[in-house]
Design goal:
Elements lengths: L19 H8 L4 E8 L15 E6 L7 E6 L5 H7 L2 E6 L3 E10 L25 E7 L7 E2 L14 E7 L14 H4 L24 H10 L1 E2 L3 E2 L9 H12 L6 H10 L2 H8 L10 H13 L12 H7 L27 H13 L6 H8 L23 H14 L3 H14 L17 H13 L3 H14 L17 H11 L4 H5 L30 H9 L11 E3 L2 E2 L1 H14 L3 H12 L11 H4 L8 H13 L12 H7 L25 H13 L7 H9 L20 H11 L5 H16 L7 E3 L2 E3 H11 L7 H13 L19 H11 L57 H22 L10 E9 L42 E2 L2 E3 L17
Parallel strand pairs: 1-16, 2-8, 15-17
Antiparallel strand pairs: 1-15, 2-3, 3-15, 4-5, 6-7, 6-8, 9-10, 11-12, 13-14
Amino acid sequence: MGTEQQAKRRPGAGRRPLSLLTATFLTLGAGVVFLTQAPSAGAAPVEKCTRTKGAVVAVDFGHWGGPVVRGCDTTPTTGYELLRSGGFGTTGTGHDGPGFLCRIGNSVFKNGKQHPTPAEEDCVLTPQATAYWSYWIASPGQRRWTYSPLGAMSRTLKPGDVDAWVFGGTDIGGTRGRPTFTPDDVRPPGGDPPAPGDPAAPDVPPGRVDLSAATRWLTERLTNGQRVVVDGDTAPNYLATTEVAYALASLGDANPTTRRIADYLGRAEHTEAYAYPAGKDEAPDATAAARLALVAEATGKDPRAFGGHDLLGDLLANVCLSGSDAPQPVPGCATRGDFRTTGQTEGQALAVIALLSGGVKPPADAVTRLARLQCDDGGFPSFLILDGQPCESEAGSTALVALALQTAGGHTPVVTRARSSLKKAQFRTGAWPAASYSVPGSAHATGWAAQTLRALGDRAHADAAVSWLSRQQLPGGGFAFEEGGTDPLLYATTAAVVAGAKSDLVTLTTPEPVTPPTTPPTTPPTTKPTAPPAGEGPDLRKGSAYLADHQRLVRGRYYEAGRGFAEYGLTIDGAYALAATGHDDTTLRNIVDFLDKGGRDAMGRDVHDWTKIGTKYAGGGFIGKAAVLAESVGRDPRDFGGRDLIGALAEGVCPAATPATPRKCAAKGNYTYATSVFSQSLGVIAQVRAGESAAAAGPIAYLKSLQDPSTGAWPSLIGERSANEVDSTAMAAMALHLLPDAASRAAVDRSLAWLAAQQLPDGGFMGASGNSVNSAALAVQGLSLDAGKYPAQIAGARKFLASQQNEDGGFTIAEGAQPGSDVRASAQAVGGATGISFGVLTRDLSGTTPEPVPSVSPSTPLIITPGEETGGSGGTASGTGGGSLAATGSRTTGLAVAAVLLVLGGWITTRTARVHRTSTEGPALTLGRRAIGRPRPASGRRAEGGPGPIPGRTADSGRAVMPGRATAEVRTPAPGRTTTDGPTSTPSSTTTDGGPA
């Protein structure tokens, strides 16, 4: 289910606040990485992993004053297996099982004690969003962390992948709490093999650029915080303005100054004055157009609609098809492949990078033109010379061209020679000269060379360059052009800032891996399959068969979140889907009987070990989710599984808010431990369907109070800051649609208008995992409340769902996500595609007969259901969920998604994964870090009944992804030491030595 699980945090879902990158770089700067070996039994030495073999995981214990510890798995299968094989011990939550990571430990830190300790977190329910392990991932070649849309059990690994786990808080979009180290800081050394004879990196002391001071100096150069105006001029210097934008963007995409610059440059009069000097309908100045496109890409704007121009389209349209020797030469074309009017290597390379960062493949001739510029020494000149002309290489040009060709691909020999040329030209001080014949080091050239070599995997050379830059920084924060200079220069400072931030032009511009009746309506009971809405849509029969397959649905009764650990939230999601389609009433009956008649998993747990009814952890979302299922299939919600769910909901209405830690009640009318709008909505639906509208008055009023008055949407989380999202808005609309009053009708109408406006061009909707299947399915359900008004949107969303359905009948999590079907996403897609609201979902099971429990071998765990045969099974699922529907909306969703996806999809992979490991296991490397006082995040909340992909964790009501979550300020550790933000502002040094894990 969407948001509910996010509320649980995927290990991270629900909040989408500001980026920590800027805050970290500006206030903390880069730390220094120190690697020490930490022997770990069962873990392969980190040196055994390379950029093309195995995967590496890094766990940041900085919250407790500890180091960043690395582990390696030479034959990786899933993120969960990587963690365990890398020498880390883990503990899941009691509610969601081992797939939802609550504690992690390693022998390197405090003798393997797992953190957080029981005194800090009891790990019964999903940890609160401000204090959990968040899960971050980076694929080969990626130099920025991405918040994982999958749980660790669901994420399948490729050679060269890097994972990170950070403790703290973030939201489902991963906009906060990023690791303080970069993927390159924990990757095995080296990218492509260096050329024989390449010199070793200079032996210099570590250093870091004072990014805060440099940023301050740069912003002081701006007029009105939006443009550079050179002394004595009145017109803006557009080129210099773009340079400042790149530098600030390297510190994080939330920098308001960067956005102001982009807004200024994106005004038509400025775009045309800079990039279209010959007229707005004429060919652009290619270098200027490329620079503006890169600004747009660095700030999340569209380079195809910037200042009224399609910058990328105009670049493509003005690639020279012939040269100056043609019978009718084209002005500005020296030879085939040139971008018209460039003339300089910089412009050609920037145009190629701008196209690539915008998702456009540059013409082969334009890329080849760059490659053919290479001089005999492997470097590149600053001008677009022709064959036979003198070729004098410069470090800055060489670095920029190598970066462009590496990104374009297909030119490895050329890039290798350029890489060697740069390393050979580096002075023993760590600097590069502005020109081959120069003697003093140049901050501008050194900044560019450092960017590129870091991107190519030569971190030691790049770190030596940053060390030199740190010694050249002037008192005011700026940099002179050359060593010994005292006058700061903008172009030198911008290059130094990007290098000091351990970023590069490609990284900073590439987007990261969208009139009711007066009485409650009802759907007449039917034993016939539900007719889907008109138009193209997914194959619901195949989808139902996928969900009912016993390879996933253990003994036809439940999905697993781990070996023998039933994922009851996800199981109810599957039941909802089967109830909506009517394609397999027998399996649906099996599931319902298992839940209602006291069926237990191999761990001896029944459904109420999940709802926690009768305990101090009873969750309104969990209970509501189970009650809605009972109501949907004609069972008594006042006696389901031997418990009165409706009575428990009434008792679980909060009389007032409780302390934030743990957050049991956010406010009066909130259900206990309902930490998401998704959970709250499920409780309301259950009570209203049971005829208890009066008892639900408080929860209804509270749910209404959470609606954004300016948009009509709902946020994902309750009791803490989070963004509006599709999943929660659709769910809340379904709940209020059951009410006859005019205010409720108006609230639903406004929410549906907001939902319709969120639809993407391909018909999908953005959720926690991207262009999300869960969110699209929930949007169909929501918009179907007024199907006559939104037929086009519903049809578009169903077509999108069809595009995400796989041959096995299941669905991927999101457009462009990890290939393969996911049970939680499939459950939501199948049920959501019917358009039936949870408020009116009804399936008559009379006349059905439960199938006998399949026979199993005596060695398998037994699951006893009173009145049925006994048996066992070992099937698995690809997700876990808790008290709500599967979804990818908010943290609830995130969390849930994280946990669920993680558990469900990943468990299958993990179970079938390798059983043996090589005996040459050795120490894990530790990134020791000095704590540099990082403020502790405000307390968060626990998620409970809704889906939510929180990476690092599993959610109960939604899908659970075990992605990680963590709060860490982005600081890039320099070699030799690692910096860590500790929970307090008191620095504490950390050294780590290994011991057996």
